[in-house]
């Protein structure tokens, strides 16, 4: 095994184990055995199990935020921008389903400073998402009878629940699921 792959192998092993048996019940020994590396090799890249867990959050948050910034940066019709953002967050959440499982089940296990950082970054993403809804309300295309926070929570509840029901081996295609959930959400936003 090449040294450059050690960090990726350890991360992949940690994700699989944290998603299937939980963060608290996964030992460093299990991670290095699954990755096929020594503890010394793992500790060369990660200071602790908490470091590994935070890396999972870092990867997903950075990916989705970069996509959000790119989509918003391209500009366009508010409904279509929001559609693209929704589809993207759903597709990436499905693509990184195991990471999502860890994300939503293990946040309370992060050290306090790291939990605060994850919360700050999630809030930043959420605020930009909510700003799109507010923009649509100002344009008269999205309903105003329900608070923006409630509308955003409605969408993200679907994202958070994906790891409980979606299976890549199932009949539902990732792109189709993302499109259908987005269509349902956008229909719920329409001005009545």
Question: What does this 3D model show about the protein?
Answer:
The protein is an all-alpha fold and 192 residues long. 76% of the residues lie in helices and 0% in strands. It is built from nine helices and no strands. The longest helix is centred in the middle third of the chain and has 27 residues, at 112-138.
Order of helices and strands: HHHHHHHHH
Question: Quick one: overall form?
Answer: elongated
Q: How many DSSP helices?
A: 9
State Rg. 19 Å
Strand content: under 5%
Low-confidence stretches: none
Number of strands: 0
Mean pLDDT across every amino acid position: 93
* Category from helices, strands and their pairing: mainly alpha
Cα-to-Cα separation, first versus last residue: 59 Å
Q: The biggest beta sheet, please?
A: none
The helix fraction, in percent, is: over 70%
Output the keywords.
single chain, mainly alpha, 192 residues, elongated
Summarize the structure.
With 192 residues, this protein is mainly alpha-helical. The chain is built from nine helices and no strands. The longest helix is centred in the middle third of the chain and has 27 residues, at 112-138.
Chart the SSEs and their pairings.
Layout: H1 6-21, H2 28-35, H3 39-45, H4 49-74, H5 78-95, H6 97-106, H7 112-138, H8 148-165, H9 174-189
Helix pairs in contact: 1-2, 1-4, 1-6, 4-5, 4-6, 4-7, 5-7, 5-8, 5-9, 6-8, 7-8, 8-9
């Amino acid at each position: 095994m090449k040294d450059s792959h050690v960090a990726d192998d350890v991360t992949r092993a940690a994700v699989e184990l944290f998603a299937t048996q939980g963060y608290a019940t996964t030992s460093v020994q299990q991670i290095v055995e699954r990755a096929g590396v020594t503890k010394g090799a793992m500790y060369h890249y990660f200071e602790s199990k908490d470091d590994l867990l935070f890396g999972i959050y870092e990867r997903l948050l950075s990916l989705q935020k970069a996509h959000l910034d790119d989509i918003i940066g391209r500009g366009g019709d508010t409904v279509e921008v929001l559609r693209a953002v929704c589809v993207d967050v759903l597709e990436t959440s499905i693509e990184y389903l195991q990471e999502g499982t860890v994300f939503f089940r293990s946040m309370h296990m992060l050290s306090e400073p790291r939990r605060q950082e994850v919360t700050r970054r999630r809030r930043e993403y959420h605020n930009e998402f909510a700003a799109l809804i507010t923009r649509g309300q100002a344009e008269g295309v999205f309903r105003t009878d329900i608070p923006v926070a409630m509308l955003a929570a409605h969408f993200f509840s679907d994202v958070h629940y994906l790891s409980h029901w979606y299976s890549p081996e199932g009949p539902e295609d990732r792109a189709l699921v993302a499109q259908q959930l987005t269509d349902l959400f956008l229909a719920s936003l329409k001005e009545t």
